Structure prediction request, 297 residues.
Amino acid sequence: MLRTLKQHGRVRNEELQLRAKSGELHTVLFSAEPIDIGGEKCILATQLDITEYKKAMEKAGEVEELKKLDRLRTELLANISHELRTPLAGIKGFATMLLDYERRLKPAEKREYLESIDRNTDRLVNLIEQLMVMSSLEAGALSINRNPTAIDRMCREAIEEGRVRSPRHRFVLDLPAKLPRVKIDSQRIRQVIDNIIDNAIKYSGADTEITLAVQTTGEELLVTVTDHGAGIPPEDLPTIFEPAFSYRNKLKTGGPGSGLGLSICKGLVEAHGGRIWLESEKGKGTRCSFTLPLALP
Prediction:
């Protein structure tokens, strides 16, 4: 403060923390400038206690954050309700057709209806599982069962299943000659990899390449999925891991999604002590990366 006064000749509204006799910290705005009183050089100093103002601003910020969370929850619940109704309507409709017109339907038609019921049932089960994981993450009650895991084998299986889910894409697996076994919950991390690959499939065109790469960097394992799809606008990147992001994206694109996938990925990776982030350039593709510690803390 004295240095500022010497350098600039004055101090304007510098925020300071002062402790009162009671021991309570107060925030004050301090100002000082030289004045001349009867030919004598003096310093006029003032301080304004803004402690209550700061507290009020903090509360206002908390209220705004709560409002934001409430809006996100409302958006998410609206989307989940839609995601539940859609497969249920399909199951109900085809089940009714089978019951009411069993004798009129050809075997091929019956099989088509049963396959649709099976697909929609899988869709419901997947959504319910995502909701259960999200609920456990929010409550801090998700159990992580760590066991030594061959991550290279897990990635090979994920790529093979990706090829089955989307034959129109070219899948590339980039692994070093040798990778250490890592102590993780293999089911949870496989869920993360599958979710990221599914996003790459969903948002990239036919005959484009999707690469799954793994490498060690210091004390961490780095897993990266790269696609050559439409990319993500810069303004969406800060909220990409929010639960309702996919819902808002769906409103723009009409694409499917409960809005839980990347949010769950973030929670599962962080539960392992890792980090997850996304890099993207609109029109050029997206790279989603996450780390896992090689040694437990």
Notes: Residues 70-139 form a domain with the Helix Hairpins fold (CATH 1.10.287.130). The chain has three domains: 1-53, 70-139, 147-293. Residues 51-100 form the longest helix (50 residues). The CA atoms of residues 40 and 95 lie 97 Å apart.
